[in-house]
Structures are given as C-alpha cells and as structure tokens.
Amino acid sequence: MSTQIPPPSSHALEAEVLRTRADLAAAIDELTTRLSPGYQASRIAHEAKQAASDAGAMATGKFGDKNGPAQDPRRARNAKVLIGATLGLVVLGTAVAVTAVLRRARG
Prior knowledge:
- The protein is mostly helical.
- The chain has helices at 10-35, 37-60, 73-106.
C-alpha cells in the first residue's frame, strides 16, 4: 500500500519561493551590515568605551555589581586586557624615561 503525495500546487510553490527570497534578502542584508567597515568601527568603539568604563568599575570596586562586567566574561576579559595594556604602556614609558635620564647623566 503506497500512498502517493500529491504535487504541490502552483500557489504553494510560489509562496515558498517568495518566502525563500525574503529569507535570502534578510540574510544578505545582515551580512552586508556585519561586514560594513562603518559598522565594525562603531562596534569596536563601543566595546572600547565599555572596556574603559568596566576598568573604572574594577578600580572603584563596583566590578561585581548586578549589571557589572563580572556577569559577562567577554566584558570582564576586555576590561582586564585594557588594564594590562595600560600598565604595560606605563612600564614601557617609565623604562624609556629612566633610560633617557641615565644616558644624559653619563654624558
């Protein structure tokens, strides 16, 4: 006993094609937005500002607040990276300054 499935009607096929086109257009729009240099720059700027704010929260002890960066591992990592990079630049600047002073003192 084999039951044959009737072929879809032309209206059903047309509706499926329209749905597929709409889905494809939405996917293309989303990819275009995600790959846009302006969008990427905006996102990076926002994350940098948020990391600076989170680093300030770490310094003031508000890091573990209910909506703080400790709840989001990526935000916590960004804040720690920013603090590490800042400390690294301070150490490098100090080393350069000390080296310059010592060279001048030697003559």
